[in-house]
């Protein structure tokens, strides 16, 4: 029996696979052929790769594995067309991926970590704690396996807004962006991919200087350091002024409009002084404010401040948004998608991982 550890082929870049083929005396265009099978044709077995000779397929099978995740269950929302996919890693962790259709696009919300170490007080993933980073192939497989389920070319947009902080899993996130924007995945445009972060300045700058220059969303949630630190402990390490400087740099270098995410918490970030400070901040750079109704995390039975968090009512959200809009802030309210299947933002935490 062959006990050799096989390499995950979806963890390789095109140039790494080219190097492999050259090292075994093959032409490097074989790498492009294999990439085409995996990423364009969604092949799940080497034996299906018809343009590769039989002996080479055997060699690939011997050296590599195509599997990283397996689909455990799917769940569809009754209210919307949102669909949640529960995937299992080889070491038994469960992670979630959500497909969110709307009139214009089908957005895939993918996870970057099992759990999250940043402990934001309103976030179910944060309450789970941190298990580990996802590998590049586990990030990429969420896209590939979901595309196999829903049909090729159905997914038009990708957002890193599932479980985890993508900028704390920086290299794997970058490598996955390389696959998503590469020619073998029909080049999902960098403007159709959004990385959402709680705000790690050094990594925001590194992402701006990378090859990918995708869209960036910053989880803002308060324009005040003291309030933000209470609900997002990461703010004590990286204060807002440093994060905003990094965001300004990001917008300039990538020529993109930065999105601020803002989850509405009653009495905490929905006051008139918040309107005033938000107006000043949002108008000081090319930005758009995305107001998000707070999704309940009661299913996690939290304690401490998490237990006290209450959503701002929809009437109060409307009034808040109107004030901002009257102040010439570009602001939209995000639909709460898939609420009934706990597939909305920040509700991603799996029963077995709780
Ligand atoms: N770690 C990254 C990306 C994942 S979270 C980040 O924090 O940006 C994706 C978005 O969901 C973030 O804006 C996050 O603040 C928001 N979110 C988390 N919990 C939420 C909740 N219970 N209700 C609404 N939005 C939430
Ligand atoms: Fe982590 Fe983002 Fe949740 Fe904060 S909001 S705990 S950074 S996943």
Helix count, per DSSP?
A: 13
SSE class: alpha/beta
CATH domain topology of the largest domain:
TIM Barrel
CATH class category label of the largest domain: Alpha Beta
Our measurement of the CA-to-CA distance between the termini, rounded to an integer number of angstroms, reads 38 Å
CATH architecture classification of the largest domain: Alpha-Beta Barrel
User: Which ligands appear in the coordinates?
Assistant: S-adenosyl-L-homocysteine, iron/sulfur cluster
Rg on CA atoms, Å: 21 Å
User: What sort of overall outline do the alpha carbons produce when their principal axes are compared?
Assistant: elongated
Strands of the widest sheet, in order across it, are 3-4-5-6-9-10-11-12-13-14
- List SSEs in N-to-C order: EHHHEEEEEEHEHEHEHEHHHEHEHHE
Beta strand %: 15-25%
**Helix content range of the residues, please?**
25-40%
- In terms of quaternary structure, what is this? single chain
Q: How many strands in all?
A: 14
| Domains (count) | 2
Main beta sheet strand tally, sense and closure: 10 strands, mixed
Mean pLDDT: 92
The CATH superfamily of the largest domain is identified as: Aldolase class I
List the helices and strands and how they pair.
Elements: E1 7-8, H1 14-23, H2 29-40, H3 54-63, E2 64-65, E3 69-76, E4 83-89, E5 94-101, E6 106-109, E7 113-115, H4 124-128, E8 130-133, H5 136-150, E9 157-160, H6 170-180, E10 193-197, H7 201-208, E11 215-219, H8 225-231, H9 234-237, H10 240-254, E12 258-264, H11 272-283, E13 287-293, H12 305-308, H13 314-326, E14 331-333
Parallel strand pairs: 1-2, 6-9, 9-10, 10-11, 11-12, 12-13, 13-14
Antiparallel strand pairs: 3-4, 4-5, 5-6, 7-8
Helix pairs in contact: 1-2, 5-6, 7-10
Bound molecules: S-adenosyl-L-homocysteine and iron/sulfur cluster.
């Amino acid at each position: 029996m062959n006990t050799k550890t096989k390499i995950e082929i979806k963890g390789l870049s095109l140039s790494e696979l080219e190097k492999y083929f050259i090292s075994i005396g093959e032409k490097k265009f074989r790498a492009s052929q294999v990439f085409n099978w995996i990423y364009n044709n969604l092949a799940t077995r080497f034996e299906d790769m018809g343009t590769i000779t039989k002996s080479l397929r055997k060699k690939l099978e011997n050296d590599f594995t195509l599997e990283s995740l397996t689909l455990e269950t799917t769940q569809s929302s009754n209210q919307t067309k949102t669909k949640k996919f529960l995937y299992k890693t080889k070491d038994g962790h469960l992670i979630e991926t959500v497909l969110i259709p709307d009139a214009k696009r089908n957005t895939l919300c993918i996870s970057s970590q099992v759990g999250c170490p940043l402990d934001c007080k309103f976030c179910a993933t944060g309450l789970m704690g941190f298990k580990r980073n996802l590998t590049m192939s586990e990030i990429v497989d969420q896209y590939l396996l979901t595309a196999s389920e829903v049909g090729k070319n159905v997914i038009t947009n990708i957002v890193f807004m599932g479980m985890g902080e993508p900028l704390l899993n920086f290299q794997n996130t970058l490598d996955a962006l390389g696959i998503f924007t590469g020619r073998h995945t029909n080049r999902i445009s960098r403007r159709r991919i959004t990385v959402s972060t709680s705000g790690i300045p050094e990594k925001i700058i590194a992402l701006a200087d990378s090859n990918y220059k995708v869209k960036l969303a910053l989880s803002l949630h308060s324009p005040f350091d003291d309030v933000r630190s209470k609900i997002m402990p990461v703010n004590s390490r990286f204060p807002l002024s440093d994060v905003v400087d990094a965001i300004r740099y990001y917008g300039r270098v990538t020529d993109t409009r930065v999105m601020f995410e803002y989850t509405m918490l009653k009495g905490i970030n929905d006051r008139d002084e918040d309107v005033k400070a938000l107006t000043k901040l949002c108008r000081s750079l090319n930005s758009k404010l995305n107001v998000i109704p707070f999704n309940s995390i009661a299913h996690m039975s939290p304690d401490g401040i998490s237990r006290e968090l209450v959503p701002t009512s929809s009437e109060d959200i409307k009034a808040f948004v109107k004030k901002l809009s009257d102040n010439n802030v570009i602001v939209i309210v995000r639909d709460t998608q898939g609420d009934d299947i706990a597939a909305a933002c920040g509700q991603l935490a799996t029963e077995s991982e709780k």
